[in-house]
User: Fold this.
Amino acid sequence: MALKKKSKGLKVKDSKVELQVSSHNGAAKFNNKSSSKTINKKRAAGKSKSQSAGSNDFSIKLNGEVWPLERDIFYRPSRMKYVRKLIKTEGCVFCTAAEKSPSFESLCVFKSKHSQIVLNKYPYNSGHLLVLPLRHCGEFLNLSSEEHQDLHATLKLAIEAVTEVYQPTGFNLGMNHGATGGAGIPDHLHYHIVPRWNGDLNFFPLIAETKLVIEDVEHSYEKFQKFFRGKK
Assistant:
């Protein structure tokens, strides 16, 4: 195979095929003994733009899209203190909420005789609720029969609220029991209700340890407040 250098490109030639690529016109030409074919590598719309930018412009246009892709950046510096465990709270936040009337300040949106429903301050998804007993208790087996019954009736009510307000296609329901079981506040039992939708997860939480939530907690609280108004 012979290799010859030309002023407008590179020419590679053997006994059957000749390939010539021009950096100026962006076209590739293939010659065969029996036929020749020219392939235009750039769309007409992008041709003039690339020519005006010069031969040092390395942007490539694929199917009408610019590559490399332009990315938007979502900044949430306020979450850094929480992620790094720099926010220290005194006492139990659930007990503090239990001592007050339902309000956005405590994030408690509903109370029954023995239980309460609280919005997660750092939700995994929009509409993430916590259902927990009013009494400070970290052992499931230490709940009284009345507390147990009331807690699960309240859990059902919370699921009804999420279903009506957000209409999810699925749920993650569960409790992390004890520090070893992954509970963030192991001394106060609490159920998680996380609404789910098809396609609501991607690789971003894995590579950046960050989950994008499309609605802030204040708007979520207002929606649930309307649902629970008048409920007992």
